[in-house]
Design goal:
about 35% strand, about 15% helix, 8 strands, 4 helices, alpha+beta, about 200 residues, single chain
Length: about 200
């Protein structure tokens, strides 16, 4: 049962932060009417021409298989996420090909020198250099080696708008890609989500 300990630790953390959840989810947690299951949030986004503060998600984000697991800029009611791993990847490809691009590390200075910031209800969830979060290069890496491990748990609450932004240095923008090509970014957030128990 070696996988049980991370879930129990995540559950204890969720209990600690439960006052920030929606009132309904708070009650479900207190009554142990929800449980945590493994979950990875995935968002892939065209970042061609990105500069300044560039939103990775917004109200028009759609949940599309292989492109995004988020609908809009918030998690659904009663679904909170506790996580301790994150990875970013860069890809270059044709238009509207977010799901067909191979994502990896990159030498593009504008992106490497940017920060990835998540905020929710004026609470800073995450603020780290993109260079730290980009998937490492090299063969023979385990799946776990592809992720940046946080020193503690972070969380996203249910039914509350989020901001996911790439913040570029002042006056810096993504360079023009090869003619006919587009810059893409992927974000993987790995942890556990709440799900209602089946009675």
């Amino acid at each position: 049962m070696r996988n049980l300990e991370p879930i129990l630790t995540s559950w204890n953390f969720l209990n600690d932060v439960s006052p920030t959840l929606s009132s309904e989810l708070q009650q479900l947690v207190q009554n142990q009417s929800v449980r945590l299951i493994d979950h990875t949030i995935v968002v892939r986004k065209n970042i061609t021409g990105a500069s300044s503060t560039f939103p990775v998600i917004n109200a028009t984000t759609k949940s599309i298989e292989g492109i995004s697991t988020i609908d809009g800029a918030q998690l659904t009611k009663n679904q909170a996420v506790v996580f301790d791993q994150i990875a970013l990847g860069y890809g270059l490809g044709d238009e509207n090909q977010e799901g067909a691009v191979k994502y990896r590390n990159t030498d593009i200075a504008a992106l490497r020198n940017a920060s990835f910031v998540i905020k929710q209800n004026n609470r800073e969830v995450l603020n780290l250099p993109v260079a730290d979060l980009l998937r490492p290069t090299g063969n023979g890496l385990n799946a776990s080696d592809q992720y940046y491990s946080l020193k503690g748990y972070a969380f996203l609450v249910d039914d509350e708008e989020m901001e996911w932004d790439i913040k570029f240095p002042a006056g810096v923008a993504m360079p023009a890609p090869t003619t006919g090509k587009f810059h893409y970014l992927e974000v993987f957030i790995k942890g556990a989500k709440t799900i209602k128990n089946i009675r």
